């Protein structure tokens, strides 16, 4: 992969992720539309200060409790996630005994298989593909799920999701953990737990938290889940953005 920006560039990381996504398109992993979706994410990341804020940290802890206590957790992977955090997805799946399942909005058998091969090359075990499972009430390609994966799952982690599918999965009785930089999205509003942050920071944080919290007693994990309020977390994210922009508008040098 060609990295265009030097490490000394002030926006090196941002450029690196763009290069990764462009490489993903070249490898037949990421969709062209995935590039524009990433652009929307970048804009929100800018508003969030490109860091993991307190409201995201709270959601990450609750998501960790849910993944640890789940009967069958599944990580749903699309073309952006597969290229931005492949090794981290595999590590998280191994640590939580989660299944990895490819789920694409833009239908492409070729891209599905490319993602499977890419993840396997990096050490993934089984990578599930959609088969006979169907999510009722969804018309897009994302309705197709694996019977052994998302259909059976009780907890599903969905980085870069669409709101209809999130709502439909919740209606099926699944607990949905969304990673979405946009706190206004339908996904953010419909998920049980919304981590308003960039997946490139969230997945490594989830790995760290799983390593810490897996020694906790089950009752403690459950009580953390039970005391969580997703609406409050989304409210905090929006208030944070509004406050940050207000401060920035008064003093362009302020860092908050
Ligand atoms: O499934 P594919 O590979 O065919 O690609 C599907 C895309 C990603 C194009 C599409 O299904 C999709 O989900 O796009 P949306 O509906 O625009 O949703 C993307 C959401 O993810 C937006 O709210 C973005 O703000 C957010 N987002 C983008 N990049 C990141 C992100 N959230 C967290 N981390 C990111 N890196």
TrEMBL record:
The keyword Nucleotide-binding applies. It comes from Candidatus Gottesmanbacteria bacterium CG1_02_37_22. Keywords: ATP-binding, Coenzyme A biosynthesis, Ligase, Nucleotide-binding. InterPro entries: PPS/PS (IPR002855), PPS/PS_sf (IPR038138). One of its GO terms (biological process) is coenzyme A biosynthetic process. GO terms for molecular function: ATP binding; ligase activity. It holds the Pfam family PPS_PS. This is Phosphopantothenate/pantothenate synthetase. The keyword Ligase applies.
């Amino acid at each position: 992969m060609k990295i265009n920006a030097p490490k000394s560039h002030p926006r090196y990381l941002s450029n690196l992720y763009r290069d990764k996504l462009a490489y993903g398109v070249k490898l037949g992993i990421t969709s062209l539309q995935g590039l524009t979706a990433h652009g929307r994410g970048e804009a929100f990341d800018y508003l969030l200060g490109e860091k993991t804020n307190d409201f995201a940290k709270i959601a990450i802890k609750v998501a960790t409790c849910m993944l640890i206590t789940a009967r069958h957790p599944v990580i749903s992977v699309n073309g952006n996630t597969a290229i931005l955090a492949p090794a981290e997805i595999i590590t998280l799946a191994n640590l939580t005994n989660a299944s990895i399942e490819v789920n694409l909005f833009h239908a492409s058998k070729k891209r599905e298989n490319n993602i499977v091969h890419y993840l396997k090359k990096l050490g993934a075990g089984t990578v599930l593909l959609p088969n006979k499972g169907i999510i009722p009430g969804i018309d897009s390609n994302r309705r197709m799920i694996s019977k052994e994966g998302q259909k059976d799952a009780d907890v599903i982690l969905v980085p870069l999701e669409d709101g209809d599918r999130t709502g439909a999965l919740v209606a099926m009785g699944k607990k949905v953990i969304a990673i979405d930089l946009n706190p206004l999205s339908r996904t953010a509003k419909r998920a049980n737990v919304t981590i308003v942050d960039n997946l490139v920071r969230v997945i490594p944080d989830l790995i760290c938290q799983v390593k810490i919290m897996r020694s906790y007693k089950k009752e403690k994990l459950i009580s953390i889940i039970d005391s969580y309020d997703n609406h409050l977390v989304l409210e905090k994210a929006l208030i944070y953005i509004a406050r940050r922009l207000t401060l920035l508008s008064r003093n362009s040098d302020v860092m908050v």
